Amino acid sequence: MTLTLLSLAGDGIGPEITAATERVAATACARFGVALAIERAEIGFPALAATGTTIPDAVIDRARAVDGVILGPVSHNAYPPVAEGGRNPSGVLRKALGLYSNIRPARSHPAVKTPTGHAVDMVVVRENLEGFYADRNMEVGPGEFMPTPDLALAVRKITRENSLAIARAGFALARRRGAKTVTVIHKANVLRLSDGLFLDCTRAVAADYPGIAVEELLVDAAAALLVRDPARFEVLIATNMFGDILSDLAAELAGGLGLAASLNHGDTHAVAQAQHGSAPSIAGQDRANPGSLIGSAAMLLAHLGHAGPAAAIWAALDAALADPATRTQDLGGTAGTRAMTEAILRHIAEQA
Ligand code: ATP
Ligand code: MG
């Protein structure tokens, strides 16, 4: 059976890192006898120019039909907001495919300096479909609105259903990783109802995992502790915006956004996506670190049941990171995007 992935290049550094990721996924799958077909479609600025929307409905339909998606970064968030057509492709896909869970690992590499000097190996499990994200809360009314020209309000939606779903995803992942502790991130001292409901749900799920200790931590305290003692964290479960912010912090603590992989998944679909944005300032210069999206693709392959190619990609990525000559400048290396990709391909080919 052929595994079909849809690759969406996006904007900025997107085309460079998706091209690299496609080659790495194809090579790893070939080594393990997994038949892989990669389809491509346009999103972001090219799609906006050609079709009037940053993510055409036909692309959403293809994303639904394939086994998985490789999603490049898109520069959607210009302010003031792009009126019609400027929708956020990643928000749209997360909603359309029911991707309630965003798994964001942060793992340091021995050869890559970390800002605090600590080794880091944690995963942020972030709710993906509600919280303070206006574009995902439209069904409860406008997610943001201005009752007067001098007052802007934003709505934060927390449901029992999604809080239970993200807690289940987080604890299941903790068990698979053999984690001893799960840290639940909240701000229930001021968001009593919404984070109160979220905490209730994580406690209900935690009861099914008596072997795992649970630590409930205020998001502000978590930010401080992440910097002071990142090694204490194994799996963090968080609502959407807190998880978004802390995962960038965790990624930097592990060595930088250039390595920050992530997987969006629900019960039926999955999308690989780097944690960072489109980094337009380095686009088209062969400077982007492809590791973030390549790692994301490895997570996608593992999620789809192809543990062999996934592990081969992680091992090859680690091998490339070990040598400054085969890692990019953001990690203190000298390689360009293409040279780092070639090194990863070479390491996959050389694996026993
Ligand atoms: P966007 O508006 O799409 O979010 P951005 O410029 O904010 O774009 P981010 O991706 O959020 O870009 O990243 C912020 C900075 O981190 C970039 O300007 C870049 O310097 C660095 N960065 C992010 N991703 C990478 C990468 N893959 N390789 C190298 N540097 C990166
Ligand atoms: Mg950004």
From TrEMBL:
What's the superkingdom here?
A: Bacteria
Pfam families assigned: Iso_dh
Q: Which GO terms describe its molecular function?
A: isocitrate dehydrogenase (NAD+) activity; magnesium ion binding; NAD binding
Keyword Oxidoreductase assigned? yes
UniProt KW Oxidoreductase keyword: yes
Give residue ranges for domain Isopropylmalate dehydrogenase-like.
4-344
Keyword vocabulary terms for this entry: Oxidoreductase
* SMART domains attached to this UniProt entry: Iso_dh
Q: Which residues form the signal peptide?
A: none
BP-aspect Gene Ontology terms: isocitrate metabolic process; tricarboxylic acid cycle
Family, according to the entry, reads as follows:
Belongs to the isocitrate and isopropylmalate dehydrogenases family.
**Protein name stated in the entry:** Isocitrate/isopropylmalate dehydrogenase family protein
UniProt lineage: Bacteria, Pseudomonadati, Pseudomonadota, Alphaproteobacteria, Rhodobacterales
